[in-house]
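FW: tagging you since you asked about this chain on Friday. Here's the raw sequence from the shared folder, copied in full. Didn't touch anything.
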Amino acid sequence: MDAPTRTAVEAATSNGQIGPVRTGLTSEPDYIRLNNGALLPILGYGTFMLTDPNVVKMALEVGYRHLDCAAYYKNEKVVGQGIRDWLAADSNNKREDLFVTSKIFNDSHRPEQVRASAEKTIADLGVGYLDMMLIHWPDAFKPGMDNDFYGPVCEINAHDTTRDAKDVVKEAAESQEDGKQSGCVTFDEEVTMEDTWQAMEKLVDDGLVRCIGLSNFSHKEVKEVCDMSRIKPVVNQVELHPMLGQKKLVDRCFNMGVQCLAYGPLGGPNAYVPNDLLPHPVVSRVAQECGKSNGQVLVRWSMQRGVPVLVKTGTLGRLKENLWGMMDWRMTDEQMASLNALEAKKRFVDVPWKTWDTSLDDPVSASGTMSSAA
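HL: got it, structure written out here
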């Protein structure tokens, strides 16, 4: 996917309305206009668990221009090497043609850590600046603790009157060394979201970052940031696929001028939740009708909702499949409706310490479809 020309950019950003735009020769939108006028490629490449810089170079050669990174992935030096290799391969390859995103992790919400995290990411990626920096999760972890991302909230039940006080003290001593508990998460109560967001805005002021945004935020949390912001968030990156459509969240964010960005479009798999979305009979039927793969149908589902999407693969064939020609076909309304009917409020990305806001959820029947009472 080539970067848009100057004329195309000017035309696409002229009216200030966020949402899908066409900048090239495709029949369907290829970019998303953000609330600050920046153009985000509608298809991006996710780098979670990536270990080979050659895969990054290959993705860029195929045509991906949005790279989604994060400090938590602990591979930004690898991604940076792939970018440098791509730039060195052809003098026509330019840094400014890329849209590079990263994320501030949960243990870096304090203002001084926001700045340090951004500077380290920029250095590790070797990109000079970031096109977009997100707050990875709204939940702040206390820095310096042995926080386990896949663990529950740390808790010593000191108020349990059914147990001997000596046992409680002994348990606390055994599970805490220098105030640290292992295998769990301690939230940081010394920093507010306003503190963090103001530090994010300072990154824009100082030219380190061009866009700032959110990830895994509820509609209430997005509104909270919008209400306090001097520089509004441009995106909210969340898990989206037919089994977790989050239509009300997407709509609420859009009405606030915040574009949702989909991760996990194919569902799982992970160690706890097998992927029953990608091979689902309905997905297979629609794919057969469209002459596409199941993966292409699921990626197209987000695109057709006007939602930019991140894909992740390490093979050349899949890289091409998920990008080439994806802006030149559409599913019918009936096909989209059949995929929408798979709604089950099912998350493939979940962690024990996270409490999700379900206030926008509609009732779901036992079959997994929306209840008629919705």
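FW: The two ends are 40 Å apart (CA to CA).
HL: agreed, and The chain has a mean pLDDT of 88.
FW: great, closing this out.
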